[in-house]
Amino acid sequence: MVPRLLLGARLRALREARGILPEHAGYAIRASHSKISRIELGRVRFKERDVADLLTLYGVIDPSERAPLLELARQTNAPSWWQRYGDVVPGWYEAYLGMEEAASSLRTYELQLVPSLLQTGDYARAVIRLRHPFASEEEVERRVQVRAIRQRRVAFEEPFTGGDRPKLWAVLDEAILHRPFRDRTMMRAQIQHLIEMADSPGVGLRILPLGAGGYPAAGSFTLLRFDDPDLPEVVYLEQIASANYLDRPDDVELYTRVWDECTAASRPDKTTQLLRRLLRDI
């Protein structure tokens, strides 16, 4: 997925440097302007012919400049681990999985449920059955496997940047942990898991307490940041059967400000204490 993101970002930079509109770029490869947007966001596979035509349109003629970009185009079609789960991973979600792995940090705010990267197996099964009430046991287990793989590859990996910062930052509304959900045993295990994750060097966890009062987050969201300077920060907004990806600087700035206000209202030194109190009260 990283080659796809990199190539998309570089094609976008080349197009904007030449002052070419997405509509004109789309015409050059016999496609719509919306496909150009998906290409530049790394959300679709690349055809080498399309990349070659775009490079020509953008004035990249020198073979030494074209070669590395065309090689990136070939790399974008390499298989990803989630393709083995194509029956339970929808196409609109594949782009996020790639971004999630490529990101140097993820900052997620959750209003309704424990974030999927921090769920226990039983909690994940309960959430999946809630969202897919007619799914077979085999399908449920395959969806649980996808979450478990994501957790191993993202939430449980070693911290980056020299081991001094976590990759995953999460703020959970305390109401999530008070809401009746299946049974007490499952919720106790989930809260115990959050306590363990709060002590993990790869996770920065905070609970936004009920007494925090009003704050500007109207729904759940995830901010993804990448090390490569060519890749813009992205806001991921998941819906029931689709998702939105925002990368306009104004949008990213807005959600970053909301994130900062949510973290300011949640004290990290109180998170484990609050979780232990909740565990005792269940």
Automatic annotation (TrEMBL):
<dbReference type="InterPro" id="IPR043917">
    <property type="entry name" value="DUF5753"/>
</dbReference>
<feature type="domain" description="DUF5753">
    <location>
        <begin position="94"/>
        <end position="277"/>
    </location>
</feature>
<dbReference type="InterPro" id="IPR010982">
    <property type="entry name" value="Lambda_DNA-bd_dom_sf"/>
</dbReference>
<protein>
    <submittedName>
        <fullName>Helix-turn-helix domain-containing protein</fullName>
    </submittedName>
</protein>
<dbReference type="Pfam" id="PF19054">
    <property type="entry name" value="DUF5753"/>
</dbReference>
<dbReference type="GO" id="GO:0003677">
    <property type="term" value="F:DNA binding"/>
</dbReference>
<dbReference type="Pfam" id="PF13560">
    <property type="entry name" value="HTH_31"/>
</dbReference>
